[in-house]
Amino acid sequence: MLFFLDSAKLDEIAYAIEHWKIDGVTSNPRHLMNAGMKVEEFAEKVNELVKGTEITVSLEVNPHLESAEKMVEEAKHLTSFGSNFVIKIPATEPGFEALYTLTKEGVKVNVTLVFSVVQAIQAARLGAFYISPFVGWREERGEIDVDFINKVVKAVKNYGFKSKILVAAVRSAKHFADAALAGADIVTAGFGVYKKMFENPYTKMGLDIFSDAWDQIYK
Ligand code: E4P
Predict the structure, then answer these.
(1) Which atom of ligand 1 lies nearest, measured to the CA of 88?
(2) Ligand 1 first shell, C-beta below 6 A
(3) Helix (H) or strand (E) holding 174
(4) Which ligand 1 atom sits closest to the C-alpha of 58?
(5) Could you give the domains of the chain?
(6) Which of 29, 58, 147, 162 is spaced 20 to 30 Å from 169 by Cα?
(7) What are phi and psi of 164, to 5 degrees?
(8) How far apart are CA 34 and CA 32, in angstroms?
(9) Residue 124 to residue 172: CA distance in whole angstroms
């Protein structure tokens, strides 16, 4: 399972590439707002960090766009910033139409804001490179998500579609485990989620126990 960082902060991205060897980056308008950058500025700067690597960066089209034509136009503009970009298009009727056109023209698309199995299937049918079911948002609203990830993965893999399932809005180590057990291809999570996930209180407890033993030997 690949690990992507969900962020538009360049210092976080550089750190995660260097120290965690992350496989990709996902961004959205809220991340851009938090990083204080317009999408073009982010695209230019992040391209400096990832060009010449296999690391993909997902960039989202303007969420106000309502027609497939406008989404296609903006997607093409965003791909002009480098060859690592995958364009995020929403799972809406015009979004699916834009996906079809873009895929035919060789643009890689990440279908975002997926909340149902049928949205995932339509994305897969029309050639999505990544399909992003959101888990954290549902759970924050009291819905249990384990089954949702399982269903999306099973439905898409059942038919041999090539799209990769990118489990998004991952908030906890449990979400990572659920995604891995469901056979998802990728997870994306924020910087703080990874920081917490790489630590475990039992590992810390074990280190204290072994440090004491070490000191007994070498005192
Ligand atoms: C994924 O591609 C999305 O950007 C992301 O996971 C959305 O979640 P968040 O902004 O709530 O973290």
Answers:
(1) 2
(2) 6, 26, 28, 30, 58, 112, 132, 136, 168-169, 188, 190
(3) helix 173-182
(4) 2
(5) 2-218 (3.20.20.70)
(6) 162
(7) -95, 135
(8) 5
(9) 27
Query: pLDDT tens-digit profile of 10-62?
Result: 999 999 999 999 999 999 999 999 999 999 999 999 999 999 999 999 999 99
Task: Give the residue whose CA is nearest to atom 9 of ligand 1.
Answer: 169
**Single-letter code of the amino acid located at 64:** H
77 Cα–ligand 1 center, Å: 22
Q: What are phi and psi of 58, to 5 degrees?
A: -90, 125
Annotate 84-104 with b (16+ C-beta within 10 A) or e (fewer): bbbbbbbbbebbbbbbbbbee
Three-point CA angle 127, 135, 69, nearest 5°: 35
CA angle 90, 50, 42 (to 5 degrees): 55
E strand map for 36-163: 56-60, 85-90, 109-114, 130-133
Q: What is the radius of gyration, based on Cα positions, of the chain?
A: 19
pTM score: 0.95
Q: Catalytic positions, please? A: 88
Atom of ligand 1 nearest to the CA of 28: 4
Name, in order, each residue with C-beta under 8 angstroms of 22's C-beta and a sequence gap of 6 or more: 3, 4, 5, 16, 55
**What residue type is assigned to position 127 of the chain?**
G
CA atoms within 13 A on the CB side of 59: 28
Q: Which amino acid is at 43?
A: A
